[in-house]
Design goal:
By secondary structure, this protein is mainly alpha-helical. Helix content is about 45%, strand content about 10%. It has a two-stranded antiparallel sheet. A hairpin with a 2-residue loop joins strand 1 (about 70-75) and strand 2 (about 75-80). Helix 2 (about 25-35) crosses helix 4 (about 55-65).
């Protein structure tokens, strides 16, 4: 079944009536954004995701504490690095790793070149 523009606007209007919710949590959205923009500032992340800077700071702190994210200071800014090998946090999804989810959301995993011996 294909949707035309009119069908899509009707569908979106119906979704607005039942309330707004998303499939990915704020933590997932921040991590996904950082995976694609590792040199972003907290302000840039907040503006892109329509979150407050305070919320983004808290989420980044949570992700760092859990080991999903490492922050490296580069002058006055930060560069973030993701640990793609940690499992998703819910007990029903712990057999998948965060890197798999991020790849589905458009992250390009950095491939390390094999060194010649």
């Amino acid at each position: 079944m294909e949707f035309g523009d009119k069908d899509l606007s009707i569908f979106c209007g119906e979704l607005d009536k039942i309330g707004k919710w998303v499939f990915i949590t704020k933590h997932g959205l921040v991590l996904s954004y950082i995976s694609k923009h590792p040199r972003s500032t907290t302000r840039e992340i907040a503006l892109a995701l329509d979150f407050t800077e305070r919320t983004v700071h808290k989420i980044i702190a949570d992700l760092e504490a859990a080991g999903y994210l490492k922050r490296r200071k580069m002058g006055r800014s930060n560069t973030y690095r993701i640990n793609p090998d940690l499992p998703l946090r819910h007990e029903t999804t712990m057999d998948a790793v965060i890197g798999d989810l991020l790849e589905i959301l458009g992250w390009k995993r950095r491939r390390t070149a094999k060194r010649a011996r």
